[in-house]
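WARN retry 2 of 3 for item q-0093 after timeout on previous attempt; input resubmitted unchanged.
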Amino acid sequence: MSAPASPLRGAVPLLIATLTYAVLTAAYVVANSATPQPGTSGDDLLRYYVHDHGTAIDLGAFLLVVAAVLVVPIAALLSRLVRREQSAAGAATAFAGGVLATGSLASSAALTWALGRLPEDSPAALARAMADLSFLTGGLGYAVSFALLAAGTCLAVRGSGLLPRACATTGLVIAAAGFAATLMLLVFGFSYLLPVVRFGGTAWLVWAAFALARSRREVSA
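OK item q-0093 returned
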């Protein structure tokens, strides 16, 4: 008779994937530290993307795409781990959020890469529009998608002990911030929630992966 599957299966790959994602996210921030803010004029955008920072733009787009691709296996592993114990609906929501987050980040990377290849005589309005689309997909689109991932995970494991109460509560707070970020379409000041979800969410994801690995280890002991 074959031995039963280890309860730890899936938790270690999830931890490795989330740590890699966190490193890639940090590298992306460093590579794009000089990226113009949303209010930058079209002429300044053309100057930055077309003339001044070609290598940094390409590197940033590459790092963002690789990070985006990682979100799918992270969401798949996360949803499989929580589905075994609790809610299939919550697990499905988490996975759907991960897939949408991948699409958001990849779209942002593609738009940014294309910005760096605009002809020098391109209209400033075109650069402004592409930059806005890149910001919306990689910022708001990702925030809402990650909110689904975090909310689905935390609601699926409530009462199971798989995640510490503080971790689950933090995940729900980050999810609420992601949903609230949609208000930036009405009042741009709410855009401050985007980095809260992006970087706070990344830290939470690593925390959750460590907690799940620990939970699985305790079960298998």
